[in-house]
Design a protein that fits this description.
The protein has five helices and no strands. It is an all-alpha fold and 169 residues long. The longest helix has 30 residues, at 2-31.
């Protein structure tokens, strides 16, 4: 049980910190005149992301998750994904939030991880999910989470591209 509680803390403490940072940044962005585009899937993401981690924790608990070689690989993948996410957050600064909010007259960020890919945050999120699935020994919940959240991320990318396209004119 200590292992499951430790994993829950590993998943949810950063999630709570990220949510608070996002909320602070959202206030700044809205004060700058940023608006949220129509058609976003944020409401679904807001439920699916923590629910997926809970499902992986429950499956891991039922399977008797413990520290194995696969779990250590999962921990490394999860840590690398978090490092990428925090690089994204550091690069975007106050422009990073859970919501799609593009301030007026803003331009695309082309530094940091954005030098090599357009949406590195979603690679980080996919890595968090995959790493946590390995870490918790939760292949069923992990694959479901990858499929469901993967679809949501693709929908979100379309919203972001549309919002960035409108702002770059």
């Amino acid at each position: 049980m200590i292992w499951v509680v430790s994993l829950a803390l590993l998943a949810f403490v950063p999630m709570i910190i990220e949510a608070r940072l996002s909320a602070m940044n959202e206030r700044v962005l809205r004060a700058q005149g940023a608006v949220e585009p129509a058609g976003d899937v944020y409401a679904l993401m807001q439920v699916a992301y923590p629910a997926g981690f809970i499902a992986m924790l429950v499956e891991g608990w039922l399977r008797g998750a413990r520290l194995t070689t696969i779990a250590m690989v999962g921990a490394l993948v999860f840590a690398a994904a978090k490092a990428l996410k925090y690089w994204v957050i550091g690069t975007l600064g106050q422009r990073w939030s859970f919501r799609v909010l593009v301030p007026p007259r803003s331009t695309r960020i082309l530094r940091g991880p954005y030098r090599v890919m357009r949406h590195p945050n979603y690679l980080a999120v996919a890595g968090e999910i995959a790493g946590f699935a390995l870490l918790t020994r939760a292949p069923v919940a992990g694959l479901l989470m990858v499929a469901i959240f993967g679809w949501l991320m693709l929908a979100r990318i379309a919203v972001e591209e549309r919002a960035l396209g409108m702002r770059s004119r």
